[in-house]
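Hi Y.,

Following your request, here is the sequence exactly as I used it, all 66 residues.
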Amino acid sequence: MKRNEIKKLNKTEREKKLRELKTELIKVRGKSAEKSGPKKKEIQKMIARILTFNNLENKSGKLIKK
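Below is the corresponding structure, written out as C-alpha coordinates. Let me know if you'd prefer a different format.
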Protein backbone atom coordinates (compact mmCIF):
# COMPACT_ATOMS: atom_id res chain seq x y z
CA MET A 1 0.00 0.00 0.00
CA LYS A 2 1.51 3.27 -1.14
CA ARG A 3 1.23 6.77 0.29
CA ASN A 4 -1.36 7.88 -2.26
CA GLU A 5 -3.56 4.89 -1.53
CA ILE A 6 -3.46 5.61 2.21
CA LYS A 7 -4.27 9.28 1.59
CA LYS A 8 -7.47 8.29 -0.24
CA LEU A 9 -8.77 6.32 2.75
CA ASN A 10 -10.78 8.04 5.46
CA LYS A 11 -9.93 7.61 9.14
CA THR A 12 -12.27 4.66 9.77
CA GLU A 13 -11.00 2.82 6.71
CA ARG A 14 -7.40 3.38 7.85
CA GLU A 15 -8.25 2.02 11.30
CA LYS A 16 -9.87 -1.05 9.75
CA LYS A 17 -6.85 -1.64 7.49
CA LEU A 18 -4.55 -1.20 10.49
CA ARG A 19 -6.40 -3.91 12.44
CA GLU A 20 -6.21 -6.24 9.42
CA LEU A 21 -2.47 -5.67 9.05
CA LYS A 22 -1.81 -6.24 12.74
CA THR A 23 -3.72 -9.52 12.58
CA GLU A 24 -1.76 -10.57 9.49
CA LEU A 25 1.50 -9.65 11.22
CA ILE A 26 0.64 -11.92 14.15
CA LYS A 27 -0.01 -14.79 11.73
CA VAL A 28 3.26 -14.18 9.88
CA ARG A 29 5.23 -14.07 13.13
CA GLY A 30 3.80 -17.47 13.99
CA LYS A 31 5.47 -19.00 10.95
CA SER A 32 9.15 -19.80 10.85
CA ALA A 33 11.48 -16.80 10.66
CA GLU A 34 13.07 -17.96 7.41
CA LYS A 35 9.82 -17.92 5.46
CA SER A 36 8.27 -14.77 6.90
CA GLY A 37 11.20 -12.30 6.83
CA PRO A 38 10.39 -10.13 3.78
CA LYS A 39 6.63 -10.39 4.28
CA LYS A 40 6.96 -9.34 7.93
CA LYS A 41 9.02 -6.27 7.02
CA GLU A 42 6.52 -5.18 4.37
CA ILE A 43 3.60 -5.47 6.79
CA GLN A 44 5.50 -3.49 9.42
CA LYS A 45 6.19 -0.73 6.87
CA MET A 46 2.51 -0.51 5.93
CA ILE A 47 1.53 -0.30 9.60
CA ALA A 48 4.07 2.48 10.15
CA ARG A 49 2.76 4.43 7.14
CA ILE A 50 -0.82 4.26 8.37
CA LEU A 51 0.18 5.27 11.90
CA THR A 52 2.17 8.20 10.51
CA PHE A 53 -0.85 9.46 8.57
CA ASN A 54 -3.05 9.07 11.64
CA ASN A 55 -0.58 11.04 13.76
CA LEU A 56 -0.29 13.81 11.17
CA GLU A 57 -4.05 14.07 11.00
CA ASN A 58 -4.39 14.17 14.80
CA LYS A 59 -1.80 16.91 15.18
CA SER A 60 -2.99 19.19 12.40
CA GLY A 61 -6.67 18.35 12.38
CA LYS A 62 -6.49 17.63 8.68
CA LEU A 63 -4.22 15.65 6.43
CA ILE A 64 -1.27 17.51 4.95
CA LYS A 65 -1.20 17.07 1.18
CA LYS A 66 2.01 17.22 -0.78
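The chain has a mean pLDDT of 83.

Thanks again,
Q.
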